[in-house]
Amino acid sequence: MTSVNWAGNYTYRAESLVKPRSVEELQDVIAGAKQVKALGSRHSFNDVADSPGIQVSLENLPAELTIDEAAHTVTVNAGARYGEFVERLNDAGWAIHNLASLPHISVAGAISTGTHGSGDGNLNLAAVVAGLELITADGLTLSVKRGDPSFEGTVVAVGALGIVTRVTLDIEPTFDVRQDVFVNLGWPALRDHFNELTSSAYSVSMFTDWGEQGANQVWLKSRVDVGTAASQQQELFGATRATHAMHPLPDGPSANSTEQGGVPGPWWNRLAHFTLEFTPSDGQELQSEYLFGREHAIDAIEAMRALQPRLAPHLMVAEIRTMRADDLWLSPAYGRDTVGLHFTWKQDDAVQELLPLMEDALAPFDARPHWGKLFTTNAARLLELYPKLPEFRELAGRLDPNGKFRNPYLDRTIFGA
Ligand SMILES: Cc1cc2nc3c(=O)[nH]c(=O)nc-3n(C[C@H](O)[C@H](O)[C@H](O)COP(=O)(O)OP(=O)(O)OC[C@H]3O[C@@H](n4cnc5c(N)ncnc54)[C@H](O)[C@@H]3O)c2cc1C
């Protein structure tokens, strides 16, 4: 059977897909393989998870959820999707700090690509990894934890160091969140009040098509225990409170969105935009995203507005999010408080031609592409954008001297120049 990614825009070329039922079986597969790579929940839009040899899915490994109350951590199997365990974690009284827009993705897939949610004070999902276990090229288990040498290189690793089997995440006592949507935020207000807007709630997302009207929707996710002042207002810098539930896409079904209208609910049921039971976003789509230091936010937004006539025919929606700087070598937020400009595109060949235009326009801001989405940024440029890339290559050379986990994506990006 032909195997494709979630959006259906990429057909994997791997010779086979293996689903081991135990870690020992996985170790044998890796030790005996010439080329092998992990496949998560297939939500990336490019060939990042492909392999010239074997692809391995962890979906048949036994489930695990071990909470260490003293250490404030939870350990899960790496192939688990967030949506499969967040409710149980909450029922036990605990929370993860943040989620991506969808709970359908696997933990290992998310952390491997530097996946993030939003919030000025919120780190990306990989930056709350306290430790992990991976099977390296020789089939042996390597355990690493925060504080170990090269730990910062091991978490966002784009599958290049081995196959991660268990991940330990920082947790905190559970909290409630309310979600409020405001509509029609004009560009002047967004420009003049950008910092106030992004700090007006625990997590803020602004959706736009780059047209004259500005941000069509602003989603505020506010922690009930911290303060919800902005979310209770009738107006937010001229934007008005939505009168009904919304979907980020203008014609999208609001039933697929997590509850809005200021109704408090558990963190796991508000921090993602989409619920697990439904298709997130559109499905028939492509995505790309570029991330840069937040001091460039307004200039980068203006650069995308200038491209609007070229982008608009192919765009479904764009989203502006923020995140806190981290110290993970290949994280798009490495070393800088970050703003991300995300694009959901129609499934249209023309998108590939738009990417270099956008990358040129964002080059002055040293924009890093999301590893799991579409981009054309080449290896030489990635070397400039990621100061720790040489150290990462050295680490990969030590753990995988024969390039067992390499694939064409890694050869042309991380190892290319
Ligand atoms: C509808 C939609 C919404 C999205 N929203 C967001 C968002 O809000 N924020 C954001 O940042 N991104 C978002 N993304 C992108 C998504 O989070 C990333 O593409 C993520 O990597 C997908 O995880 P996955 O489990 O599908 O991994 P895959 O796409 O299957 O794999 C991604 C990478 O992880 C590696 N990998 C997977 N499992 C393992 C393992 N066990 N060990 C080692 N390496 C492994 C693979 O080899 C590959 O390199 C979205 C994508 C979609 C389709």
Q: What is the strand and helix layout of this fold?
A:
Elements: E1 16-18, H1 23-32, E2 36-39, E3 54-57, E4 65-68, E5 73-77, H2 82-91, E6 94-95, H3 107-112, E7 129-135, E8 141-145, H4 151-154, E9 163-170, E10 172-173, E11 176-185, H5 187-192, H6 194-198, E12 203-208, E13 215-223, E14 235-236, E15 239-241, E16 265-266, E17 285-293, H7 297-306, H8 308-311, E18 315-323, E19 338-346, H9 350-362, E20 368-369, H10 379-385, H11 389-399, H12 408-412
Parallel strand pairs: 1-3, 2-3
Antiparallel strand pairs: 4-5, 5-9, 6-10, 7-8, 7-9, 11-13, 11-15, 11-16, 12-13, 12-18, 14-15, 17-19, 17-20, 18-19
Bound molecules: flavin-adenine dinucleotide.
Structure in words:
There is one protein chain. It contains twelve helices and 20 strands. The chain has helices spanning 23-32, 82-91, 107-112, 151-154, 187-192, 194-198, 297-306, 308-311, 350-362, 379-385, 389-399, 408-412; strands at residues 16-18, 36-39, 54-57, 65-68, 73-77, 94-95, 129-135, 141-145, 163-170, 172-173, 176-185, 203-208, 215-223, 235-236, 239-241, 265-266, 285-293, 315-323, 338-346, 368-369. The longest helix is centred in the last third of the chain and has 13 residues, at 350-362. It has two domains: 65-174, Uridine Diphospho-n-acetylenolpyruvylglucosamine Reductase, domain 3, CATH 3.30.465.10; 176-370, Alpha-Beta Plaits (2-Layer Sandwich). Residues 6, 37-44, 48-49, 58, 78-79, 100-102, 105-106, 108-110, 112-113, 115-116, 158-159, 163-164, 280-281, 287, 370, 372 line the site of flavin-adenine dinucleotide. Flavin-adenine dinucleotide binds at residues 6, 37-44, 48-49, 58, 78-79, 100-102, 105-106, 108-110, 112-113, 115-116, 158-159, 163-164, 280-281, 287, 370, 372.
